[in-house]
Amino acid sequence: MTNARITELQALNRILAQAGENPVNGLVDIPRNATRAHETLQEVIMEMQADTQFWHMNTELEKELIPDAITSKIQVAQNVVSISTRFQEHELALRGDFVYDMRNSTYLFTNSITVKMKILLDWDELPVQHRTYFQKVAARKYQQRFIANEKKHQFDLIEEQQARNLAMAVEVTETKKSMLHSPSLQPYVRRVY
Asked: Are residues 46 and 138 in the same domain?
């Protein structure tokens, strides 16, 4: 049986290969160039998932958060990058590890709240198309920072765009979104004649 999901090690070795460098056998005790490539991959994984407008695959819908019985604060996990709510009584933000109610200027909550959360997924939790796209972005960034070959950079951009298109196609299919869901078109979609 063929495994369609690339491992983090395979992604790292693809980044190194794209830069014309030797592969590694693991993710620890690796040469400096491989460490830089791995750090670039980790950076891309975090940056791409933190984009609150872009991906749906790392979104938790209707997540109930309960205030601490003693402090009345709501602490979130380290992998939460953003939260929002559709209820008008709260306008929420993350401040440090806690939920902050901007409308009422407080960290204190008397009741549980239901939110939409963006979380950072581990590599193994990412869909295969996103892994490929993130690896291509990391390869281009690594090559641009440490190799700086302009011709190679142009080729990497084309490969990255193809991988992005595939990841976006999966996003659109899985979320059943269309251009009518675009925030910029909402005034036109909602108007009454």
From this structure: yes
Residue 187 lies in a domain: no
Question: 115: domain range?
Answer: 59-119
Give the pair of three-digit tokens for residue 90.
């709260």
Q: Are residues 92 and 47 in the same domain?
A: no
The amino acid at 157: L
Q: Is residue 103 part of a domain?
A: yes
**Rounded CA gap, 73 and 92, in Å?**
13
* Dihedral over Cα of 77, 78, 83, 89: its sign: positive
Going by C-alpha positions, the residue among 109, 117, 119 that lies closest to residue 74 is: 109
Q: What is the tens place of the pLDDT at every residue in 113-166?
A: 999 899 999 999 998 888 988 998 899 889 888 776 666 555 566 666 666 666
pTM reported for the whole predicted model: 0.72
